[in-house]
Amino acid sequence: MPILAFSLHGLDAVDWKWRTVPQKSACFGLKDKVAFWPGGKGLGGSNNINAMLYLRGIVQEFDNIANRTDNEEWKMENMLQFYKELEDYHGYYDSEDHGKGGLLSIEKSDLRRLTHHYLEQEEN
Length: 124
Fold this sequence. Notes:
Elements: E1 18-19, E2 36-37, H1 59-69, H2 76-86, E3 87-90, E4 104-107, H3 112-123
Parallel strand pairs: 3-4
Antiparallel strand pairs: 1-2
């Protein structure tokens, strides 16, 4: 059950339990301005503990790879076509930045069904 995936964070058997370096401009509410950065140990890596959340790569990281390798193909503007081919997007945004009809179905999260089921169980 995806919602329970967060209970795996911090478990030695499945999480590398990484921490960020202290941040100058972020993490103000965290001790020493250091953030917890879960990383999955199993086959598939962090997908095992990310609650089936869909996240694209970070634009700046693609552009950094392109700059470091002198290979413009790695720029996010070039990689976007591959995301669009992969996606069957039914999310929150109507956008030309997402694909339709691909193999990866992306939908809005709906916790109402889970909440309803949980409340029904409490009544019994």
